[in-house]
Write a structure and sequence with these properties.
alpha/beta; eight-stranded parallel β-barrel; 8 strands; 13% strand
Amino acid sequence: MSARFRIADLAAAKQAGRPIVMATAYDFSSAIALDAGGVDIALVGDSAAMTVLGLPATRDVTLDEMLMLTRAVRRGLVEAMLVGDLPFGTYEQSDEQAVATARLFADIGCDAVKMEGAGATALRARAVIAAGIPVMGHVGLRPQQLVAGQQAHVEARSADDAMTLLDDAKALESAGCFAIVFEAVPAPVMTALAPYIRVPTIGIGAGPSTDGQVLVTHDLLGLTAGHVPKFVKRYGELRRDMTDAVARYADDVRARRFPDTAHSYGIRDAEVDALRARLSVGSSM
């Protein structure tokens, strides 16, 4: 890949204390916007299940759907690193399954893939990395484990659970993951654990102590409706703006204000006269 931002750049950013910016992309247009906005990493997240495809949970998105979205993002992304989320059920069963799925993403231009969980997932990650495909880990809240209607919750709210979280992260680090996402972790816990993790950490609902942050682009743009997680900051209200624009368009069409002359193609008057003459002759036959 000719990505401006590479895996080596993440380690350098961590060393320099330079925050890493990551956001989700699901199509050609959002990829262009992330590049133009200066995002370092574009994640084709399985959150597309809800944000793009209208499915009830991340685990409902299929491999084919994720690959289709990833191809679209790849076409629009030039400078940021591209990471593809391996969807639920496509990497857990065996090393062979994990490697085969990861290769599909690498073959369409991903710089790396992301896998949720530790434990057996650390073994799958090790196999994928050994096959030459970089892996970003993901600990804390794991959305792929939530079924439709199940409420997400904050992880590691006890000292024991925080130590388990650190063990999970260290297992992924030992497997060779180049970075790890921490989701829905109390900020003081992340602050305490951060010095013990050598690879770059990316937080989502994990406070300011991680080496970088990731948000779902639909959330930060104000495109999503309903419950907004505590960790989301709205940087736009595009859903409101889109609804207003569509409503004004509908009003103009119904009032015959659109299209007007400014939005219509013209033709020479002589050609119009010739056309009418021919139509007049034809109608009299």
